[in-house]
Structures are given as structure tokens and as C-alpha cells.
Design a protein that fits this description.
This protein is mostly helical and 74 residues long. It has two helices and no strands. It has two domains: 40 residues; 33 residues.
Length: 74
């Protein structure tokens, strides 16, 4: 009797664990697809923002150099 109950419990546990893994895997795939769609354009926007910041920093650096040169010339 004890072996039968333990065997049934083991079979039920194994059956439920495999079902749970399949559902989790499909949910994980859906979540990954959603994140990919949402971040698709974001990386490009971030890259452009970084490029703009670099260009502005270069321009500011040139302005500072010009100002220093003007001070040296006076």
C-alpha cells in the first residue's frame, strides 16, 4: 500500500513538473519577443543621442580652446 501511494505521488509530481516547464518556456519566449520588439528602436535612439552628445562635447571643447587662445592673445 505504501509503495502504491508513493508511486502515484511520484508519477503525479513528475507529470506536473514537465507540464510546468513547458508553460514556463513558452512564457519566457513570449517575454523575450516582447522585450525585443520594445527595445528595437531604443538602441538606435540611444546611439544617436550618444553621437550627438559627443559632437556637442567636441564643439564645447573647441569653444573653450578658442576662448583660451583669445585670453592668451590679449
Amino acid at each position: 500500500m505504501k509503495k502504491v501511494v508513493l508511486s502515484i505521488a511520484l508519477v503525479a509530481f513528475v507529470g506536473l513538473s514537465f507540464t510546468s516547464c513547458r508553460e514556463t518556456e513558452s512564457k519566457t519566449e513570449e517575454a523575450v519577443e516582447t522585450v525585443e520588439k520594445e527595445t528595437e528602436g531604443a538602441l538606435e535612439k540611444i546611439g544617436k543621442s550618444v553621437d550627438n552628445a559627443v559632437n556637442e562635447t567636441k564643439e564645447a571643447g573647441k569653444a573653450v580652446e578658442d576662448a583660451v587662445d583669445d585670453i592668451d592673445n590679449n
